[in-house]
Structures are given as C-alpha cells and as structure tokens.
Amino acid sequence: MRTQTTTEKDSVGNTGEEVPAVSVRGLHKRYGALEVLRGVDLDVAKGETICVIGRSGSGKSTLLKCLNLLEPPDAGEIRLGGERITGSGVDADAVRARVGMVFQHFNLFPHMTVLRNVTAGLRHVRSFTRQAAEAAAMAQLDRLGLGPLAHQRPNRLSGGQQQRVAIARALAMEPEVMLFDEATSALDPELVKDVLDVMRALAGSGMTMVVVTHEISFAREVADRVVFMDEGLVAETGPARPTLENPRTARLREFLARVL
Ligand code: ADP
Ligand code: MG
C-alpha cells in the first residue's frame, strides 16, 4: 500500500484521501519493436473527469484499451477501485463490465434495434431478465433523449444519435468508469455538440471519466484535469484550465499551438 504523509497532491494528482477509481503504475505496452506505452503513471479520483490529449500516435488509444483489458499490458499495474486487474487470475470480462468504453466509431449492431443494442450486454454479461434489461435500457435511452428511437435500427439514426445510443449502452451496465476515445471525431460538425453535451452532463453527474479528445475547449471547460501524452508517457498533467492556458512544458506548448 502507498502511504501518504501530506494532503498535498502528488505528481499524479492523488491526495491520498480516497482509493482512486483508476490507478495506473509503470504501464508498458509494445507492438513488436514499437514501444507505445513507456511507463505510464496515472490516477483518476472517483468522480473526476480527465481529458487525455496528445498528438496522433502518442499512445492515447492504447492506454484506454489497456484500462479495460482490450489490450494486455506488457508490464505495470492497473487497479480499479483499489483492486488489481492486471496479472494472472483476472476475469477480463468481469473487468470490462465495470469499465464502459465509447469509441470513435459507434460499433452498434446494425441488425438489432436500438433497444436490443442496449439490452444485449445487460442480458448476456449481467444476466438480467429480458424485462429488467428493457427497463434499465429504456431508463438510459430516455435520459439521453432517445426513448422515441428505441425500436429503430441504428442506420436510421444520425451519427450523433448513434453515438448517444453507444453511450446509453455503456451506461446501462452501470460502469465504475467511462472511457471515451475521440467520441466526436467521426461526427459531422453540427452533431458534435449534442454528444459533448451528454458527456458534459455525465461529468457533472459525478461519473468518473477518462476522455481522449481533440476538443480542447471541452477539456478546458469540463475536465478536472488534463493529461498530455507524448511518445508513450504522461508528459504533463495538471488542472485543466491553468495547464491549457499556461503549459509548463515546451512539448505541450507546441502541441497546443498546433491544434488551437
Ligand atoms: P493515439 O491514440 O494517441 O493516436 P495509439 O495508441 O492508437 O495512439 O497508437 C500508438 C502507436 O501504436 C501508433 O504508432 C500506432 O500505429 C501503434 N499501434 C496501435 N495499435 C497497434 C496494433 N494493434 N498493432 C501495431 N501497432 C499499433
Ligand atoms: Mg487514438
């Protein structure tokens, strides 16, 4: 166990007062000769929203995939609510049920209705009865303004609606943490706001979120903290607004100059 002698935040933002929702230490991942994650340390407090920014290829998606074990890390440790999820003897499906993930491409099942897309995980992973799954699914769909679309096929929906269905599907599983990987990057510009508004409301509701995004203004307004990844490492992290307005590192300054 880590011991903490002060209430000052350490380098990964941990106050030591509560077990983090997510804790990553020394995470390494390589694809062949390419070392994609080179020792990532990151804590996410319960209820915190973190935005992960960084140039293409810096390892952001790989980090998210490691967090819900879509990719096995090569070394290092990941804990969810204090519980180790890396190493041997871990039920990866059980972990994935605790970590919701929303991708750039919505990955909805095209042959199923919206409702069936949302109930599938509840029925097959959480063993809900059909009735209980439909009640839980409708509650999420209504919450995101999608109730009237429950019996449509995804291809009848706009991209923004489809992405909101993907969010409802993840939320229906009652995850401890939600991961978003460029959830608005594939959307037409006029549809981006709807999805960002849902994410903003979710952050405000106290969900723990790790959001990979190119939307710097969203990060500035919604994130508690930004994490800047560079070449497989966390190169800078800090409270969103001051870090984005006044970066400490030249690398983050350069990155922001390029994207803003
Ligand atoms: P980001 O999301 O920051 O753009 P990624 O995590 O997707 O970065 O990728 C980091 C690097 O790892 C890139 O160079 C990418 O080409 C490589 N990479 C990602 N996934 C794979 C894979 N499955 N096999 C081989 N290389 C990969
Ligand atoms: Mg990516």
UniProtKB/TrEMBL annotation:
Keywords: Amino-acid transport, ATP-binding, Cell membrane, Membrane, Nucleotide-binding, Transport. InterPro entries: AAA+_ATPase, ABC_ATPase_HisP-typ, ABC_transporter-like_ATP-bd, ABC_transporter-like_CS, MetN_ABC_transporter-like, P-loop_NTPase. It holds the Pfam family ABC_tran. It is found in: Cell membrane. Its main location: membrane. Residues 22-256 form the ABC transporter domain. Coiled coil: none annotated. Belongs to the ABC transporter superfamily. This is Amino acid ABC transporter ATP-binding protein. It comes from Amycolatopsis pigmentata. The lineage of its organism: Bacteria, Bacillati, Actinomycetota, Actinomycetes, Pseudonocardiales.
